[in-house]
Design goal:
alpha+beta; Jelly Rolls; Arc Repressor Mutant, subunit A; 4-stranded antiparallel β-sheet; 45% helix; binds adenosine-3',5'-cyclic-monophosphate
Length: 225
């Protein structure tokens, strides 16, 4: 496998070429078609995935049958590590949003890698700390904020995950569809379009097709995080 691909994955950053070659021997590269259910909540799991190219939605289904989107992962992100680490069933569903190329690690190889390369374990912990912070702000926004605040903090999470910053503005190249945004913010599709309209009228954002620009990122963060 091309080492540049492995080197570009945050989990494997700072490893030597020899280490990357060893790691590449312990993994399988595979393409999953769009809308493929890669992991199913509550199933027993023995594999861990790293996304090379594509997007994967992580979600759970509420008791009333509503989808709650926990995260949308993209190039360089990983998933499926929780069941491997704690031996419990899958904590969520994972579905590809487009054709997605992934590396797949088997449980024993992944655990062995953590013993052999402490840097990988530290990178994994850093990402888990980031996900916990993200979940904490999601809990805060769901429990404390009104619809405007919940939608705005969902936009902020997407901006922090995948936006590009330039001169104080953050551009989200492609905002998820409105139903997905609703499932991320714990609200309805109608509320999403109403709130995005209000946020534009208040001068917080500009929407151009599926592109969204946060006009002044610092002010937005101060008001909605
Ligand atoms: P696992 O429980 O094995 O299978 C489902 C995967 O979804 C889980 O591992 C994590 O990799 C991923 N996952 C669960 N919750 C979140 C979250 N809040 N943010 C990002 N990824 C998550």
């Amino acid at each position: 496998m091309d080492l540049d691909i492995l080197r570009s994955i945050p989990l494997f950053s700072e490893l030597s070429d020899e280490d990357l070659i060893e790691i590449s021997k312990q993994t399988v590269r595979q393409i999953y078609k769009k809308d493929n259910m890669v992991l199913i909540e509550e199933e027993v799991g023995s594999t861990m995935f790293v996304i090379l190219d594509g997007r994967v939605k992580i979600s759970r289904i509420s008791d009333e049958g509503r989808e709650v989107i926990l995260s949308i992962l993209c190039d360089g992100d990983f998933f499926g590590e929780m069941s491997i680490l704690d031996g419990q069933t899958r904590s969520a569903n994972a579905v590809t949003l487009e054709d997605t190329e992934m590396l797949i690690f088997r449980r024993e190889n992944f655990l062995q890698m953590l013993y052999e390369y402490p840097q990988v374990a530290i990178n994994l912990l850093k990402e888990l700390a980031h996900r916990l912070r993200r979940s904490d702000s999601q809990i805060k926004s769901l429990s404390l904020q009104n619809a405007l605040g919940r939608v705005a903090s969902t936009i902020l999470r997407i901006a922090d995950d995948s936006g590009t910053i330039k001169h104080g503005k953050v551009e989200i190249a492609s905002l998820p569809p409105q139903q997905d945004l609703a499932n991320m913010a714990g609200t309805s599709r109608e509320t999403i379009s109403r709130v995005i309209k209000s946020l534009s009228q208040l001068g917080y954002v500009q929407k151009q097709g599926s592109k969204l620009i946060i006009v002044e990122y610092d002010r937005f963060k101060q008001d909605f995080s």
